[in-house]
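Thread: quick sanity check before group meeting

JM: Hey all, I'm pulling together slides for Thursday and realized we never actually wrote out the predicted structure for the chain we discussed last week. Dropping the sequence here so it's in one place. If anyone has concerns about the input, flag it before I start.
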Amino acid sequence: MRTRLPFLLLSRAAALALALAASPLVHAEKADRNKPMNIEADALRHDELKQTSVFTGRVVMTKGTIVLRGAQLEVRQDADGFQYGVVTAEPGKRAFFRQKRDTAPGAPDEFVEGEGEVIEYDGRADVVKLIRRAELRRYREATLTDELAGALIVYNNLTDVFTVDGQKTAPAGATAGTPGGRVRAVLAPKEPASGTRATPPVRTEPPALRTSPSLDGAK
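JM (edit): ok, ran it. Output follows.
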């Protein structure tokens, strides 16, 4: 019988998942990489020599506002305390990623979420990679605003920059991204900063054309 294994803070394996204290000078979303990593799974294998932990079976990881889900998660931590994770989906399925974005005070909440056969999280660079059959969606509250699809999507949380590659090489017999190796994107227009829509320009009738008395324009 399988039991769910929380990432307990009392074991040496749990020490791998401890992060640096979050800085009060940055927004919570930017400080996600400094939050503790909490993981649930059906099984855990920890390698003390390599300082890696591999979680398998219905894995759910939360780290601040970050959520990762998949069939397997390999976690490691470098000497400076930054954490790295690689989530792998079950065959034929995709792993899941979600994170809250920084927004101005009083502005609607925004989220990014995505899927890929493999998802890599780099805590030092604060970068997420969605690999193979990748999709990334951005929401304003519950409204979908932007949607991207390709073979490889890289999301940099520090700079809010997205890059999409539609032709990343896939294993033999597998589909890397979208059909034809093309990037697909649906981008919604942004709301004005004032919260009101811009007034459309007023149309005016074009000036009336006048004919010349002669072809050469002579008076």
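AS: nice. The longest helix spans residues 12-15. The radius of gyration is 25 Å.
JM: adding both to the slides.
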